[in-house]
């Protein structure tokens, strides 16, 4: 009698174990399918980003070519033929007060640079950023080439 009860309990435990294993297997299969979906999404994103990078690279290349072509044209422009009144420039950009301050700043930067100060020293003396001084000097350098 005791053997029958133990046999029934054993069969019952085996059935419960099989149900539990099937439930876990189903959960793992769902996780696997989710991972497969993520993997395909990642591959699609990789393909799109590669395509985007190629497009950006070709855009940059074409822009560089255009800039090089335009810079050759700019070198030969005579500025005297294209005079623009200072008043129109100020109205165009709506920076009448800043324009004069920027001219003064540019003159100060060029003077200090002519004395022999480096960009960091000029920035400290004028209370400006080093990058701002770099930009002003580079713009002035570019203006020399256009003239």
Automatic annotation (TrEMBL):
The chain crosses the membrane at residues 6-21. Keywords: Membrane, Transmembrane, Transmembrane helix. This is Uncharacterized protein.
């Amino acid at each position: 009698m005791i053997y029958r009860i133990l046999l029934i309990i054993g069969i019952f435990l085996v059935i419960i174990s099989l149900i539990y294993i099937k439930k876990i297997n189903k959960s793992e299969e769902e996780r696997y399918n989710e991972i497969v979906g993520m993997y395909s999404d990642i591959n699609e994103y990789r393909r799109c980003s590669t395509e985007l990078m190629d497009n950006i690279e070709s855009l940059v290349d074409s822009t560089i070519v255009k800039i090089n072509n335009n810079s050759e044209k700019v070198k030969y422009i005579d500025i005297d033929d294209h005079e623009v009144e200072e008043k129109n420039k100020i109205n165009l950009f709506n920076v009448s007060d800043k324009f004069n301050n920027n001219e003064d700043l540019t003159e100060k930067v060029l003077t200090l640079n002519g004395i022999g100060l480096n960009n960091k020293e000029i920035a400290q003396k004028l209370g400006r950023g080093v990058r701002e001084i770099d930009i002003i000097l580079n713009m002035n350098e570019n203006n020399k080439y256009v003239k």
